[in-house]
Design goal:
- The complex is a heterodimer of chains A (635) and B (190).
- Chain A is of the alpha/beta class and 635 residues long.
- Chain A folds into five domains: 113 residues, Glutaredoxin; 209 residues, NADH-ubiquinone oxidoreductase 51kDa subunit (Rossmann fold, 3-Layer(aba) Sandwich); 87 residues, Ubiquitin-like (UB roll) (Roll), CATH 3.10.20; 89 residues, Up-down Bundle (de novo design (two linked rop proteins)), CATH 1.20.1440.230; 56 residues, Alpha-Beta Plaits (2-Layer Sandwich).
- Chain A has 26 helices and 17 strands.
- In chain A, the strands form five sheets. Chain A has a five-stranded mixed beta sheet. Chain A has a four-stranded mixed beta sheet with strand order 2-1-3-4, covered by helices on one side. A four-stranded parallel beta sheet of chain A has the order 7-6-5-8, with helices on both faces.
- Chain A is globular, with a radius of gyration of 27 Å.
- Chain B is an alpha+beta fold and 190 residues long.
- Chain B has two domains: 74 residues; 99 residues, Glutaredoxin (3-Layer(aba) Sandwich).
- In chain B, 54% of the residues lie in helices and 7% in strands.
- Chain B contains eight helices and four strands.
- Chain B has a four-stranded mixed beta sheet, covered by helices on one side.
- In chain B, helix 4 crosses helix 5.
- The relative contact order of chain B is 0.10.
- The chains are: A alpha/beta (635), B alpha+beta (190).
- The complex binds flavin mononucleotide (FMN) and FE2/S2 (inorganic) cluster.
- FE2/S2 (inorganic) cluster binds next to helix 6 of chain B.
Amino acid sequence: MTATETLHQLKQAAKPHLALSPERPQLLVGIATCANAAGARRTRDRLVEELEAAGLADGVDLIQVGCVGRCSLEPLVEVRMPGEAPRMYTEVNEERAAQIVRQDIAGGKPIATWLLDGGATLGEPARATADVEPGEINLFTRDWQHVKFFARQLRIALRNVGRIDPESIDDYLAVGGYAALAKVLDSMTPDAVVQTLIDSKLRGRGGAGFPTGLKWKLTRAEEASPKYIICNADEGDPGAFMDRSTLEGDPHSVLEAMVIAGFAIGAEQGYVYVRAEYPLAIKRLKRAIEQARERGILGEDVLGTGFHFDIDLRLGAGAFVCGEETALIASIEGKRGMPRPRPPYPSVSGLWGKPTCINNVETLANIPAIILKGAEWFAGIGTEGSKGTKVFALAGNVNNTGLVEVPMGVTLRDIIFDLGGGVPEGREFKAAQTGGPSGGCLSAAYLDTPIDYDSLREAGAIMGSGGLIVMDDTSCMVDIAKFFLTFTQDESCGRCTPCREGTKRMLEILERITTGKGEERDFERLQRLCDVTARASLCGLGQTAANPVLSTLRHFRDEYEAHIFDHTCPAHVCRSLLHYEVDAERCVGCGLCRRVCPVHCIVGEPREAHTIDLEACTACGACFEACKFEAIVRR
Amino acid sequence: MLYQREVLDTPQWWQGLDEMIASEREANPGAVQTALIPVLHYVQDRFGYIPPKSVNHVAQALGVPTSYVCGVASFYSYFSLEPRGAYTISVCQGTACFVRGSQAVLDEVCRQLKVSPGETTPDMVFTVSDSARCLGACGQAPVVMIDDDVYAHVQPQDVQGILTQYIAEARREMQTREELAEIDARSNHE
Ligand SMILES: Cc1cc2nc3c(=O)[nH]c(=O)nc-3n(C[C@H](O)[C@H](O)[C@H](O)COP(=O)(O)O)c2cc1C
Ligand code: FES
């Protein structure tokens, strides 16, 4: 029996257990870390109660799915009624949950004002997902073209996230899951798989953008055995959460890609290294691995073909540097997670000195789609040097925070203003930070640059893992540079001197500047330190640690100058450069500032103008925030 | 979670630990060390920190020096060699949360509890984490996590309300524990 036939049998056996069924009324509740923070579990519990109370517990299915990416409107509940276009309710607290069941589900009257985009339906009525043919993948946009936030996206890596129950392998099978694996096992040689990836021009999504096909080819060419596949799910970039969302929403697609990698490279064991800060992702991964073993998709006899491959989990333990591949390998080996010089690269000498292929979660999530739809299809998306799509985590001062997956080459403006809805409270856009602690800050001048690996690098930032933090005029760029240096200085493992000392000295200079003690020569000193640290450090952490400084120096030099020469912080962030005074004209003596001051440095009689003791004041700004009469002045 | 540490320290649990190490040994005969970090997670999950006695035990079972286990445990900020409070508070200091004002939230938490980041309150109820980097809910920034509960869009003025729930729970737990101890003492007496 071929793998495809085995898979078909599994799918037939799964049908009675399928959660997704277009013939039944269904409520899809996003249950993910972000949604839970917004109270999604309470929403789900309330929906259960209300359905029971309405006597609908048996007639309506309640299904948990991953996060569709519209984080700022969570909790989200999608309503699918047979034959009707699906609709999505936003900010569903318990009260809304109750009303949705009573008015919409039981009463048949949707509540338009709570729906996404003011009442738009998402797209055409759901098709019978169970009937999706192998070779056809469940591309999100086809069904969901009515809502702007989704219509401009092309979801390949995230194709199933938010659409299936991540804890049910049957759902994954129903949307064409493991069909790519079956195709590989039945009809492709390992070399053909590698060639498909080379032709697709997929580049690694973990930061460096190394061609995935080439990495597989190199690991395949090694003679030593055994070989290993590692999925890097350490996601250390603060502000990036696409890997978490993928693992929470669609863990099987990553596992499927790992088995394919094992077949292509000649490995029998894979490890997923996932950070301990992601308990839900860990839980769902464990479950997915168990289910795949039960169905014979992992283990001794993958889909009945005699190929064996198994996957184990390894948890991180809160060290950023363990995202770096050689440090990660050291960590799996049970050592301190310190990087080592490359070469040799892991493809030659990795885990326990054996050839090891290490790929990022998002990189892997693309692979089943590439196998099914072909290298040409994938290479037809994106720009010259960067093919396919990229998932961006939109966060910071932007209206629609969340995850978006767009073709490479869209502009920052498209992402931040079109999908992201711009900067809140009518404030002004100042900077976009990409690439986390290894990346840089881009100014408004770069809003129309098409983003891909190369253009970002030219502009002094990097793609990194796709974290995209939007900053408005309340952020001080020197303070941001200091923030990142604090991070890298703290996370530097201490093994090599340039990184350990360089980051520390840079941080000291930035601290001086932000406390008004900077001097003109600091520009030169910083530049030199950046240079040395970047060139002499052992691993990517030190080599890129200077980027936040370099990019802010380049695009926001005026802010450094204001701190150094004028002793002012234009964004009113650096406390040592701020002071607060009472405008005696405006002060009505209400005493609110006196009561909120944490250090009790404001005095005054009721109904008389108050004064601030500047010696004792810590410039926390509590009085400034509290005053209803704008009588506190900040300078 | 409130840890009643004495109660957790059972012979069955240590036996479980040994079984776990044995099965790891079987799975990776040439490379038992790979079990070290999973084992440290297992210990910390149980006790909330890595007690000295477990360090020796683990070192022996894996056949590595005690200093090696300490070296690894102290490298990773997730592991603590000192007892922690019943609840660990992590105010996310990732970029998205920082940009949205998480420093003020952390300051307020420390002010309310009268500790610095990284410290534990003298009553052992709270530890304020000094290494909370991105909890992966950046869309809901600023984010605060207390054990496994995640709070979204936290402002300094929300802090007191959030802490109060945990203080109340801790107090109830203490009371129960004292009452139980009293009952135990009495029954021992009889
Ligand atoms: C300091 C540092 C941290 C890193 N963190 C991560 C990470 O969290 N996740 C990740 O996938 N790659 C990370 N990388 C990149 C990995 O070293 C490696 O390039 C990547 O996992 C390869 O996968 P890819 O080719 O699929 O991108 C990091 C690199 C450095 C230097
Ligand atoms: S930056 Fe705080 S949750 Fe990601």
